[in-house]
Amino acid sequence: MTVAGAVLALLIALAAAALFAGLRARAGARRELAAHARLAALAEQSPAVAMVVRADGRVELPERLADLLGFDTLPQQLDEIVGNEAVFDKAEGRVLEQDIAAAQKAARPFRTIVRSKGSARTLLAIGQRAPDSIRAPGGVVVWFFDATESQEEVTRLSGEAAKYREAFQSLTGLIQSAPMPMWYRDGSFKLAMVNNAYVAAVNGKDAESVVDSGLELVDASAPGGPLASAMAAREAGRPRMVKLPATIGGARRMLHIHDVPLPTGGVAGFAVDVEELEQARVGIKRAGEAQRAMLDRLSAGVAQFAADRSLIFCNQPFTRMFEMRAEWLADRPEFDRVLERMREANRLPVVRDFPGWKAERRDWFRAADAATEENWTLPGGTHLRVVAQPLPEGGLLVIFEDLTEQVQLASARDTLLRVRTATFDNLFEALGVFAADGKLQLWNNRFRQLWGFDEAFVTSHPRVDALAKAAGPRLANPGRATLIAELVRAATVERQQRGATIEFADGRHFEVAAVPLPDGNALFTMLDISDRRRSEAALRERNEALEAADKVKTAFVANMSYELRTPLTSIKGFAEMLHAGYAGELPESAVEYSEAILASVARLGDLIDDVLDLTREGGALARASVDLELTAHAAAESVLPLAQAKRIELAVEVDGSAGTVKGDARRIRQTVEHLLRHAVAGTPEAGRVLLHVDGGAKRARIVVSDDGPGMAKGLAAKAFERFVQPGISRDGDRALGLGLPLAKQFVEAHGGTIQLVSEPGEGTMVVVELPRG
């Protein structure tokens, strides 16, 4: 029983202990559950959602994060998140994957921004190595924060910051580029910032050196200097301006120094150069003095009144015109007193109500419009033109011009007008004056009689359209009458002078013209040119006959040249056979004779070719690249035997700039040969002929010169004329000197120019310029 009781007691004790432990464990479990619930509630309300990425790529994330990422079901692997392009951009998914891998391998934390396509949210991902308590060895915990609103705010603030930064840079650039010196003083009135104009004004190296050395634009120790002005402006709390001199660029300048206190406690300042303004003020003062001196020398009387109507200036003609004493004018009399003194001197128009007349003249001071002008007729026959001009400052300038002589001249002018009218009516030329509106204003008798108009018609001042309609039947072609209206309209509206010719039905021809007049009217003139037209017709017929004769002559020369080729070919053939010994061996003298015949035949053939080329008047040209150096040497080689026969030195100079031109190689070579032959023919024995070729970017130049006897000015002027060369040929052997005319023809066919310069005893030079293209 004892043992049983002990066992039972032990069991009861163990049961009590177990019960106590169970109750304590239950209480602990309740606390843990409460803590877990509290942490779960906090996690649910937390702005961040965690995702655990294990070492094998498995992920653990709550449904809240899956919804935030746009998943319908919970993903199990990391690849389902970062590799899903429907959730993340491919680049952002790759960056997140690389950051997670770096955190797993190197325990390197990361922060990155990702944008979820599924939910259109901006997320901030913060990752780090998973702690041991999570029981995910080699894993990574990634916290996702919804940063959509904060990112938008950051974007907005970044935009505003960029805008303010741009505005600040623009303002800084504006200050730096301002043409006037500008600066900023801190709370201790030391220079803290200056612009480029300030640096240039004080001859500083740069803004930093100027600020460091404290270079002042104006002497700071001077009373009322820049420091004192800045202090006064800050104390008063409003901008302040002082006028101070300064030396800028070695010149003394007057500156307006403006100091503006700022809320920061500093003072901003800028300087305006008013030296030119000061000079302008001095200039205005001098101009006023010069103006008064000039007014003193005018023939017209001038009086100037101030705003209080007192006389402040009058010139000498005014005092003489109105008989006023200088000592009385020195007291600056009032406007009314001046008028009364004029009346006492009998120098005003006679009026019944003088007080009312004087009151009307006082209104000149208050006239808001332009100057007032009046004409005064004084006793004794004097005529005055009075101009009253109100001044901007409230005064009045009155000018008195004596028109007595002009009135007398106007009377004389009327007489001259009557004389002009009589002359106008008796001119042989028909004249009519049309107003700007097209109406006939003036006409002479010749104009009316020529058109056969009635006196009543022209005195009604018809418009030019009606006048042209009435004039149509008088013309050979009535439709040409509209030309009258067109000419008058061109002269009155377009202010242009135009002319034409018209033919009357009776065979007479007239040259008509409309001339614009200074007053806006138009003068229509008609001149009978019937005799001149008959002379022109006769000359035209003669010219046509001469042209026909010239064509016949050219055709005859061309045909003769062709006809001469047949016998010339026979002569050349037989001469060559004789020279070759087909008729037997010839004596030495006969061989020489046959050679002379062959030379003459070749020369005659060249002359026939020249004549044919001359009568062709150009023709089609080949267009190819022509090397001027090769062409010059080839032409010189063909002429060399002629030069050697006369012991003439033939020199060829070709510059590297000669190059090539586009043209006919054969014609260009013939041109050079003709010029060289002409030069050799005109150069005496033992002389010198130079062929020089050079050029520029657009044109090539060929120059042939010799040291021969030269040519007279009159003969040189005819050097390029056809079939007149015998009179100016410099070689008796050349019966027809066609070389220069042919050269001119070939050069002009290539669009070039040729010029001959020669002086007696100075030789001759021919210059040819050919375009490159």
From TrEMBL:
A molecular function (GO) term: phosphorelay sensor kinase activity
Enzyme Commission (EC) number: 2.7.13.3
SUPFAM superfamilies in alphabetical order: ATPase domain of HSP90 chaperone/DNA topoisomerase II/histidine kinase, Homodimeric domain of signal transducing histidine kinase, PYP-like sensor domain (PAS domain)
One Pfam family recorded for the sequence: PAS_7
Start and end residues of each Histidine kinase domain: 559-773
Key words, A-Z: Kinase, Phosphoprotein, Transferase, Two-component regulatory system
First-tier enzyme category under EC: transferase
Segments crossing the lipid bilayer: none
Chain segments annotated as coiled-coil in the UniProt record: none
The organism's place on the tree of life at top rank: Bacteria
Catalytic activity field: ATP + protein L-histidine = ADP + protein N-phospho-L-histidine
CDD domains for this protein: HATPase, HisKA
InterPro entries to which the protein is assigned, alphabetical: HATPase_C_sf, HATPase_dom, His_kinase_dom, HisK_dim/P_dom, HisK_dim/P_sf, PAS-like_dom_sf, Sensor_HK_Regulatory, Sig_transdc_His_kin-like_C
Protein name: histidine kinase
